[in-house]
Design brief:
The structure holds 2 protein chains of 2 kinds. Chain A is mainly beta. Chain A has one domain. Helices cover 6% and strands 38% of the residues of chain A. Chain A has one helix at 14-21, and strands at residues 26-30, 35-36, 53-56, 60-69, 83-90, 95-101, 113-120, 126-132. In chain A, the strands form 2 sheets. In chain A, strands 4-5-6-8-7 form a 5-stranded mixed barrel. In chain A, strands 2-1-3 form a 3-stranded antiparallel beta sheet. In chain B, a hairpin with a 5-residue loop joins β10 and β11. The two termini of chain B are 22 Å apart. The longest helix of chain B has 16 residues, at 27-42. In chain B, strands 3-2-4-7-1-8-11-10-9 form a 9-stranded mixed beta sheet, sandwiched between helices. Chain B has a two-stranded antiparallel sheet with strand order 5-6. Classes of the chains: A mainly beta, B alpha/beta. β4 (60-69) of chain A pairs antiparallel with β5 (202-205) of chain B, so a sheet runs across the interface.
């Protein structure tokens, strides 16, 4: 079994991964700007304040783009083809990424309602992922 | 006062080293071939080269030793194609400022030796896992591993928003393949129809096989000097009339239009933005005889056309599909075949083709009476070359 490429967990993003281990999607939040931001950074991209706060988000959002992989660039993904990677616009604003599970790739549409789910990868790593949800 | 720079610098010599899937040569040997050709092209003595700017392949210090140069201007850029335009720009500025007389700009790739191609294996895995994430938005733990995945994500959103079709996108690759058939140096010269394109396997949907550039070894040398010095050499100067830099920021993505990418958070509809390259060069879009658009992935051609205002938002796919970018069309695009069919040379092949077109050296694919050629990327970098 080849191993999944591992995320690089550092001091800058550790709360994100610790949150995922506990089943929560946790993103950087700037107290001064009162807003979430993404991609993850050790300081706020708007006011440069550091350190950043970390807060859980709802995990609910809508697909803002997606791709379907038919080629495994790493051996790990060979058994998982085809697989979907989405960009999701969360209710709180940020657009984040993950795999989308449980849907035929042909049925994905822009604006599809999704919610976070968590894929345990080992003792250290749990990946935030997405699955379809019923629209409110 | 950018216009004061207009036509002060020029490309005086170009050299293309071996280009092939596997040349059997290392970077230094590939570069040596390109430098020899560039010197012979313009009749410049090696001893006159006093500047060296390396984009990729080897360290500038080692290369200066190998080439036996005495450089007073040595520089090095990150090994990525989006910096090819900025390197030519910096070399032009350095020559005009008197920091060097003749600067050899170097690109080389020996990917057959490094192995693994792009998106996995050993060659680029270290990049994808770099602090802050990969240079093209890679997230290998999600299988978002290849530079093309960002182009695919940008194109998907574009198609969903504007209704662009696979058939329209396919005409980018088909058009450029037809051009490559007229380019003896191109790697992919076999005729390709739209049906061939559509029949090829999907790789990262919505992109199919022929939406991806060729992966190959190769090297290029571009010699930049002042327009005044260039006039004394064998070939007519190709002037750098105007230029503008590569943009970077939260909404900029190397293979997209602003807002279209992997990590981009908002989308802009107010295209095109101001492009000072035209005023600096003293030309308008209608004066441009051909476009060289950076195209590691075919959507970049569509995004580049829209970003620079040649068409409106959402119109480029249909514009290409209608044949406007063909050699016999309204505004020929990538007459050498581009990365998609000539070979992946990180934008340097585009600079060479601009020079060939303006010298009248493009053979069967010559744009008649070409006087103005623009190099551009959807993420803002551009050079307008004139005779």
């Amino acid at each position: 079994m080849s191993q999944r490429p591992q995320p690089r967990i550092t001091d800058d993003n550790r709360p994100h991964w610790e949150g995922a281990r506990e089943g929560r999607l946790v993103l950087p939040y700037c107290e001064a700007c009162a807003r979430f931001f993404y991609p993850i950074s050790p300081f706020c991209p708007f006011c440069l304040k550091a350190p950043v706060a970390w807060k859980p988000v709802s995990g609910r959002g809508r697909v803002s783009s997606w791709v379907v992989f038919h080629k495994a660039f790493y051996p790990y993904f060979a058994d998982r083809l085809p697989y979907v990677v989405v960009q999701v616009e969360l209710e709180e604003g940020p657009r984040v990424n993950g795999n989308l599970f449980g849907l035929d790739p042909g049925s994905i549409r822009l604006g599809l309602p999704v919610e976070a789910t968590f894929e345990r990868e080992g003792a250290e790593v749990t990946l935030p992922q997405f699955r379809a949800r019923a629209a409110p | 006062m950018g216009w004061e720079f207009r036509n002060k610098a020029a490309v005086c010599g170009i050299g293309l080293g071996p280009v092939a899937k596997d040349t059997g040569l290392g970077n230094t040997a590939l570069i040596g071939a390109a430098v020899r050709e560039a010197l012979a092209d313009c009749g410049l003595a090696k001893a006159k080269l006093d500047g060296l700017f390396v984009n990729a392949g080897v360290d500038v210090d080692r290369l200066a030793e190998n080439l036996g140069l005495a450089c007073r201007y040595a520089n090095q850029a990150w090994t990525h194609g989006r910096l090819s335009g900025p390197i030519v720009q910096s070399a032009a500025l350095a020559c005009v400022a008197g920091l060097a007389d003749y600067i050899a700009c170097i690109y080389s790739i020996d990917i057959s030796e490094r192995g693994g191609g792009f998106g996995g294996g050993r060659s680029h895995a270290h990049e994808e896992g770099r602090e802050g994430g990969g240079p093209h938005g890679e997230m290998p733990h999600y299988g978002l591993t290849h530079p093309g995945s960002g182009a695919a994500m940008a194109m998907r959103k574009y198609m969903a928003r504007y209704g662009a079709t696979a058939e329209q996108l396919g005409m980018v690759a088909v058009t450029q393949r037809a051009h490559a058939a007229l380019n003896p140096a191109a790697m992919m010269k076999a005729p390709m129809t739209l049906a061939d394109y559509l029949a090829a396997r999907p790789v990262i949907e919505p992109l199919r096989l022929f939406d991806f550039c060729v992966v190959n070894d190769g090297a290029i040398c571009v010699i930049v000097t002042t327009a005044e010095r260039a006039r004394d050499l064998r070939k007519p100067p190709v002037h750098i009339a105007g230029m503008q830099g590569l943009r970077a920021g939260r909404e900029e993505f190397v293979f997209g239009r602003p807002g279209l990418g992997v990590w981009q958070q908002t989308e802009r509809e107010d295209l095109p933005q101001v492009h000072p390259v035209f005023a600096m060069a003293g030309v308008e879009r209608k004066d441009v005889d051909g476009l060289m658009i950076y195209d590691s992935f075919s959507p970049q051609v569509i995004f580049g056309l829209e970003e620079f205002g040649y068409v409106g938002p959402g119109e480029a796919a249909a514009w290409i599909a209608s044949g406007n970018g063909r050699l016999d069309g309204r505004l020929p695009v990538n007459t050498h075949g581009g990365h998609l069919s000539e070979g992946m040379l990180a934008g340097w092949g585009h600079q060479l083709e601009a020079v060939r077109q303006l010298r009248g050296e493009a053979g069967a694919r010559q744009i008649p009476d070409a006087e103005v050629i623009q190099y551009l990327m959807g993420t803002g970098v551009s050079i307008i070359y004139t005779r």
